[in-house]
Design a protein that fits this description.
Oligomer: single chain
Largest sheet: none
Helix content: 40-55%
CATH topology of one domain: Arc Repressor Mutant
Strand content: under 5%
Order of helices and strands: HHH
CATH architecture of one domain: Orthogonal Bundle
CATH class of one domain: Mainly Alpha
Structural class: mainly alpha
Amino acid sequence: MKTEEFDKKFDDGEDVSEHLDFSKATRPGREQKRVNVDFPVWMIQSLDREAKRLGVPRQSVIKVWIADRLEHTHA
């Protein structure tokens, strides 16, 4: 299929997923990189309480809080 035909189908709202190879898809700027951070015990306990309250893993709380802070810092 030519690019123009694909673009027209997409623009017309047709399902073009059968023409895509999702096994090779990437999310630029969203790659994961592992980092190690040491926290005092009281912070871990507070994070764990908040994570339990929200029903999410500790890591999720940390990511959301850091993302929120970075958004407000760069706004």
